[in-house]
Amino acid sequence: MRYQYSRAALVLLALGACSGGDSLTTPTGDATATLTVAGAGAGSAHVASAPGVDPVVSCDLAGAAATGTCSATYPIGTVVQLTITPGTGATFTGWTGDAASCGTATSCSVTMSTNQTVTAGLSSGTVSSTEVQVVSSDFYPDPSFGGTGAVIWVVEVRNPTSRMVDLAEIEITTHDVSGAVLATSSTFVGPIPPGQSRVSQDLADYTGNEATASFRVADVQTGSGVDNLGGAEIVSSDWQADATGKVVNWSVQVRNTTSTELQDVAIEFSTYDATGKVVAGDMAFVGPIAPGETQSGESIAQYHGTEATAKFQVARIE
Fold first, then answer.
1. Nearest to 301 by CA among 244, 252, 248, 251
2. What tens digit of pLDDT does each residue of 259-308 get?
3. Cis peptide upstream of residue 55 (ω within 30 degrees of 0)
4. Which residues are within 8 A (CB) of 18 and not within 5 positions of it... i.e. 6 or more apart?
5. On the chain, which terminus has fewer CB atoms closer than 10 Å, C or N?
6. pLDDT tens digit string along 76-86?
7. By the 8 A CB rule, do 58 and 82 touch?
8. d(CA 230, CA 227)
9. CB of 59 closer than 8 Å to CB of 69
10. Pairing of strands 32-41, 44-49
């Protein structure tokens, strides 16, 4: 017997053969991937996604801690542009993880092909008191200074880091022959550019029993990041130790290399003995100086009789 089948029946039979007898399934929804923002280092920052792509990333980073919306899920193929804004005193050092290809760019586009984790490197921009170094120092008890006596002390401080030091607080403690503490005083040195040193001289209380003194970095202040010391240059300088008058006379000529008038340029003068140990420090202000013009200044530093060399530096510009 020969059977007749309708066209619809034939189609149903073919589908059954191809499916192997299995039931039909409903396709799942669109695939997604999750973006996670993290931080590393001691600094702080805010990371935000560009408008137009939802959900929005708005993440506050403080070192490894992350608060706010720091994780979001997107359809596969979505491009999310992230922008980082470092916090006060912080420095963005670059992206790592799945955004490493963006390097140190503050804006980075991430394509959501799979789950992505991006890490923002952050430096606090601070310098610890253990990093700044007292490289040279001396003290001179003077019973006649000011009528009541004083300990004149001088210190040279070096900044070996790559960051600007606004001010370094330096502390002196004087001792008698037994090591007992007589007096403590402090002064501030700075700004100190990266890799450079600066000198400061100050006074401490006098007792008449000073035998030794110790110096230490008590505190370091950073954060301004301002280095405008290149706005002036020393074009000539001279100094002369006057043993008769017990003074060191020094003079300097300073040029304004900027396009605006400089009100005051602080020039630091320091003397050293034959071994390179700091002997004395002084400062004079030169100005105002018109753009491209040169101005002279002079001052008198203390004389100790061991002066062999001297250094002139632009210490501050206002």
1. 248
2. 999 999 999 999 999 999 999 999 999 999 999 999 999 999 999 999 99
3. yes
4. none
5. N
6. 999 999 999 98
7. no
8. 8
9. yes
10. unpaired
